[in-house]
Each structure stands twice: as structure tokens, then as C-alpha cells.
Design brief:
This protein is of the alpha+beta class. Helix 11 (354-368) packs antiparallel against helix 12 (396-415). It has 4 domains: 6-95, Uridine Diphospho-n-acetylenolpyruvylglucosamine Reductase, domain 2; 102-220, Uridine Diphospho-n-acetylenolpyruvylglucosamine Reductase, domain 3, CATH 3.30.465; 222-338, Alpha-Beta Plaits (2-Layer Sandwich), CATH 3.30.70; 339-454, Alpha-Beta Plaits. It is built from 14 helices and 18 strands. It binds flavin-adenine dinucleotide. Flavin-adenine dinucleotide is lined by residues 36-37, 73-81, 84-85, 96, 116, 138-140, 144-145, 147-149, 151-152, 154-156, 205-206, 210-211, 332, 423-425, 427, 460.
């Protein structure tokens, strides 16, 4: 085993892959690979970043780094919200952002085969142009990559009806630490041969291997969609409307909720004039046969009215629907623009506990003095709890206060039978909180699983699971 340190690795990789593939020390763009969209004030510059163009290049980087014992952190588009792509131990960032080929879209088999760097929204446009549909729709779809989506098992508003990324990944090609390339999974609609390595790989946040190709399931594109915005006086009224709709047999593709703090931050920007007493909104979207749209909208409208909606707005045409969606889409950027610190947690509680969870978040806010805005995928119980502050994010006291409040939110979530993350992942920012939810026994089995794929522990070290002596502190 050679003992060259990470310090010389950029030169070695340049000789192997060519200098155009490597962003080395001193390069002005290198710092970009030490950041992502997580709310961490510091950044973690790697020794170098490698922009791979092929499976062979990915395998070569993993072989060379294993030989030289250099840590490697896989990275897609860097839109992750929990620090999964941050090279906290230095070494090499292996980016798949240049692997953007859509190799095949097959309407007969209802599959596509793509490289990991394809931008999710681009893939959706391409398949929709052929009358097909790739449902997972993270709000970041205009800039996140499909490889990152599989690595985090990304979800989105449409998950309520169509499920999350895992349900669409049929086959994978992955490169492992050391350079071995493995093709697993299938192209068929069904298949149970052997153990399901693909399902086991999805959601591992770049800790098992680097995804170099994906075979994805597609659906026929729904012929029509309709969107309804219901405005309520408070969260319990909105929650009652949601329960009533679901009990009535409606199966919307989207069921989103936002609280008063979220609404108050978009009032001035939204084209829709929110009523003064708006305390919660519900956004519902249905799809399917064009003839059924009017009936479904009527059902939703009646349920909202019966449960005391202050206003109900419906849209069937694409432009009108975009206008209705605007209110929901404005929330996150408006909060980000208004505060210096925005810790966006994405806890998930059983559907029946949503209203109670929002009440508990109010309690955390009252106890800590931290403003909380909550919105998200109510249909799945997946709530984006945003902890907001105008204070300096680099101040350790501010950091302690914000993460102390986040910890209280996690504790309430677990008490209600929920989970720490519904879609963003664990990455770096939440790894120390995993013991709140999982037993040491369960964590230890996962450590064994990680060791099987990456015995050297060099691939994305320090992510997903707590260290053996967890302090549950950031
Ligand atoms: C405004 C905004 C809105 C968002 N909305 C949503 C949402 O609705 N739903 C949702 O789920 N997420 C959302 N996210 C979070 C983020 O976009 C997703 O987690 C996304 O899946 C990350 O993709 P990426 O390509 O940016 O991956 P990165 O951030 O680059 O990496 C994320 C993780 O995946 C690993 N990884 C990346 N590529 C590979 C690969 N080829 N092989 C192996 N591992 C890899 C990394 O090591 C890291 O652990 C949002 C983020 C932002 C900024």
C-alpha cells in the first residue's frame, strides 16, 4: 500500500484523467465543492474535485484513492440540504455533474437509461415530450441531479400518489471504492431474483458506492391535472379538510399544507391576495382522465366549504395552475431571503399526527423564542419545519440555540411515531440525532452493512450514521 497523502492526489489524478477533469489546489472554483445547500456556516474545501465524464473515470478515481488511502466524497449537483456532499475529511470530491447523457427512453418497455448527472427537470421534460412521465418531483428539480436523487431517495409533492425515487429505480450501475464496477437490478416491471441490491443502495447518500448509470421506471403521462388552493383560518381546520377528503376516497397526487407564518412571508409577493385571516393553506392537485377533473374539483371544493374554508381557488389550465402553485413555491425562497439562518428540517410523522405535530412546533417556538414556519407534504406527514433567525449563523451561541430547537423538534417527532427525515437525508447535519430514533443494535447492523461495501471507510466518511461515541450534539 502506498502512503502518499491527499496532498499529492490532484497531480496523480491529473496524470490519469487529464488536467481538464481536475480542479486542483488554488483553483478559484475549488471552494464551491466544499459547500452545499445545508445551513452550515463553514465550508470544507477538498484537496481537489474531479469532474468525471464516464464510468471508467469514476472507477479510476476510486481505484487510485483506495490505493493511496485518500477519502472520496461523491457529489451530484450539490443541492443537498444536510451536508451529504461535503468532504469533511478533505481528500477528493468526485462529481458526476458532467455525466449528463440520457442514453435511452423506451416507450415500449416504459424505462429510460440515464447517467447520474442528468438534471431531474430535464429528464422530466424529455420523457414528457414522448407522452411518458417520471413522477418524482423534488422542489429542486431544476438544478438537482438524478444520481443525487437516487442517492438521497428524494421525494416531492407528487410522492403522495406516485411514491419517491426508490420506486422508480429498477437498475443501477455503481462503482465501488477500489474501482470495481457492479451492475445490478433489472429492466422489467417485476423481478425478485436474488436480494434487492438496488433498493438497498438507493438512499445510502454516497456512502456505499458511486452511481454511474440508472435504469428508471416510467409511466404514461396523465392526460389532465387540476389544482385547488383552499384557504383556512387555522391549521386544525385545514387538517380536518385533509382528513375528510382522504376519508371520502379522493386520491390526489399532491396534498400540501402551509401554516400562518409561511403565509405571512408570501403575502406581499403573491399575486393571489390572501384574506387577512388566512391561517393555513392546503394545495391539492388531482390528475387523470380529463372528464373526471371537474367532478374531482367539485368534490374538493365542497369538502373545503363544508369545513369552513375562507376561500377556494381552482385551476385546470396550465397557466392558471402555475399561478395557484406560485403561492406554495414562494414560501421557501421568501424565508431564505428574509433570514440569515434558516434550518430547514424535514421530519415525517404518521399522517394522523400532523395537526398535533404543528401544535408541538408552536410549543418549541414559544419555549425557545425561535420563529418557526411549517409547510410541506401533508399527504405524507412530511413537514418542512423551518427554524428562522436574523442572528449571525457563525456565532456558536446562535448555532447552539438553533440546533437545540431542532433537537426538540426531532424529539417531538419521535414521540409521535415519526422519523427524522422524510426526504432530505441524514448526511452530516443529522447523523448525531439518529440515536433518538434508532437503537444501538439497529445502528450497529447498518455499520456492518456499510463495512461490507466500503471496508476501508474511505467513501464519504462521517455521514449517515453517528460515530461510535455519539454525543447528539452538532
Ligand atoms: C430549494 C431546494 C428545494 C429542495 N426540495 C427538495 C424536495 O422537494 N425533495 C427532496 O427530496 N429534496 C429536496 N431538496 C434537497 C436536494 O435537492 C435533494 O436531496 C437532491 O436529491 C440532491 O441531489 P444533488 O444532485 O444535488 O446531490 P448532492 O447534493 O450533490 O448530493 C447529495 C447526496 O448524494 C450523494 N450523491 C450525489 N451524487 C451521487 C452519485 N452519483 N453516486 C452516489 N452518491 C451520490 C452525495 O454524496 C450526497 O450524500 C431541495 C434542495 C433545495 C436547495
Amino acid at each position: 500500500m502506498k502512503t502518499a497523502t491527499a496532498a499529492g492526489i490532484a497531480g496523480v489524478l491529473e496524470r490519469e484523467l487529464g488536467s481538464e477533469a481536475v480542479i486542483g489546489p488554488g483553483h478559484e472554483r475549488l471552494d464551491d465543492y466544499g459547500r452545499d445547500e445545508s445551513p452550515l456556516p463553514e465550508f470544507f474545501p477538498p484537496e481537489c474535485a474531479v469532474l468525471c465524464q464516464s464510468t471508467e473515470q469514476v472507477a479510476a478515481v476510486l481505484r487510485i484513492c483506495k490505493e493511496r488511502q485518500v477519502p472520496v466524497t461523491p457529489r451530484g449537483a450539490g443541492s443537498g440540504m444536510c451536508g451529504g456532499a461535503l468532504p469533511i475529511k478533505g481528500g477528493v470530491v468526485l462529481s458526476t455533474e458532467k455525466m449528463q447523457r440520457i442514453k435511452e427512453i423506451d416507450p415500449a418497455d416504459l424505462v429510460c437509461v440515464v447517467e447520474p448527472g442528468v438534471i431531474t427537470g430535464v429528464l422530466q421534460e424529455q420523457v414528457e415530450a414522448q407522452g411518458l412521465f417520471y413522477p418524482p418531483d423534488p422542489a429542486s428539480l431544476e438544478f438537482c441531479s438524478i444520481g443525487g436523487n437516487a442517492a438521497t431517495n428524494a421525494g416531492g409533492p407528487r410522492a403522495f400518489k406516485y411514491g419517491v425515487t426508490r420506486e422508480y429505480v429498477l437498475g443501477l450501475e455503481v462503482a465501488l471504492m477500489g474501482g470495481e464496477v457492479l451492475r445490478c437490478g433489472r429492466r422489467t416491471a417485476k423481478g425478485v431474483t436474488g436480494y434487492d441490491l438496488v433498493a438497498g443502495f438507493v438512499g445510502t447518500e454516497g456512502t456505499f458506492g458511486v452511481i454511474t448509470e440508472l435504469t428508471l421506471k416510467l409511466l404514461p403521462k396523465p392526460q389532465a391535472a387540476a389544482t385547488v388552493l383552499g384557504v383556512f383560518a387555522n391549521v386544525p381546520a385545514a387538517g380536518a379538510a385533509i382528513s375528510s377528503l382522504l376519508r371520502g376516497g379522493l386520491r390526489p397526487r399532491v396534498l400540501e399544507l402551509a401554516d400562518k407564518t409561511s403565509i405571512d412571508h408570501i403575502r406581499a409577493k403573491s399575486r393571489y391576495r390572501f384574506p387577512e385571516n388566512a391561517g393555513a393553506i392546503v394545495l391539492i392537485e388531482v390528475d387523470g382522465d380529463p372528464d373526471s377533473m371537474a367532478v374531482q374539483m367539485e368534490k374538493i371544493g365542497v369538502a373545503c366549504d363544508e369545513l369552513g374554508a375562507i376561500d377556494v381557488l381552482g385551476a385546470t389550465e396550465a397557466a392558471e395552475r402555475r399561478a395557484v402553485w406560485e403561492a406554495r413555491r414562494l414560501i421557501s425562497p421568501s424565508l431564505k431571503a428574509a433570514y440569515r439562518v434558516k434550518v430547514n428540517e424535514d421530519v415525517c410523522v404518521p399522517r394522523g399526527r400532523i395537526v398535533e405535530m404543528l401544535a408541538r412546533v408552536d410549543r418549541v417556538s414559544a419555549e425557545t423564542g425561535i420563529l418557526c414556519a411549517v409547510f410541506g407534504h401533508a399527504g405524507d406527514g412530511n413537514l418542512h419545519v423551518n427554524l428562522l433567525s436574523h442572528d449571525d449563523p457563525a456565532d456558536p451561541a446562535v448555532r447552539e440555540k438553533m440546533w437545540g430547537a431542532a433537537r426538540r423538534v426531532f424529539e417531538h417527532t419521535i414521540e409521535l411515531g415519526g422519523t427524522l427525515s422524510g426526504e432530505h437525508g441524514i448526511g452530516l447535519t443529522k447523523r448525531d440525532y439518529v440515536p433518538l430514533e434508532q437503537s444501538e443494535q439497529v445502528i450497529e447492523w447498518q455499520r456492518k452493512w456499510k463495512t461490507m461495501w466500503d471496508p476501508s471507510g474511505l467513501l464519504n466518511p462521517g455521514k449517515k450514521l453517528p460515530g461510535r461515541k455519539s454525543s447528539c450534539s452538532e
